[in-house]
Amino acid sequence: MKKTAISMLIIAIIAISVIPASFSANDSSIVVTYGETAYMNQNYKSLVDDFFSSKGFDLNNVKSQVITANDVNKISTGISGKTYNSNQIFSSALVDLTDNGEITVEVDNTITTITPKMYASALKSAGITSGHVYVTSPVTATGESALAGIMNSYEEVTDVEIPETVKEAANDEIYTEAAIVENSNVSSDDLSKLVDDVKEEVKEKNITDTPTIVNIINDYSTTYNINITDSDIQNLAETIAKTQSVQDDANGYKEQINDFVDNNTSGFSFDGIFKSIMTFFHLNG
Asked: What is the pLDDT of residue 265?
């Protein structure tokens, strides 16, 4: 028994010693997207990098992209009518697909409007249900433009393009919710809960007509004592109807994402090795 234990320990030590110190499992499954303004200002970029580094990432070993005002305007002008300048794109994101559990979103406190639940809900609408997403900004920002970067990251990691109809519906959801929060007294969290519940009912019943969705929103608004204008309700209903109408495309993309995660997530883990060693020697308490 003692010889076996010593042999196991030697094998584990050799296995660890031959792995380079800079090794990071599945670095190709991690992408950072910088907002154009944050990337071009060294102080801003340092703040963004510090946030991602504090989450345990070695940014020297991950891919990066820059999301420009032009990238954002391709989406925003057709949805919210907003046009951004190159000095207004602060939000930055990191997508980690080595984490193949249910989609998780962490948002820095510099993001003022879009909550983790809003991002997660919009991503799920686009068929994205796996991965860990981090969003930050070097200065306070609404976070609307970060969704473009997040979806670009998924495309970069998986080499699979998100259907344009799906992108538009997901971004429409974010911009519509942001506008409602900005123009009313409803909190981001309360609105997010209402939207999630409405979307769930719409999905279960496969409802795509706007008037029916308006009625559902009104019901939930009463239930949760949320006061939003008829105009906001109409806009939200149209957004949810659009989301529901592209679910076939979203589900097709979801299958491709899941295939990528299933085929590219390594089971390697330093923690796993050490836990196995500790368990073997009955040292894990």
From this structure: 53
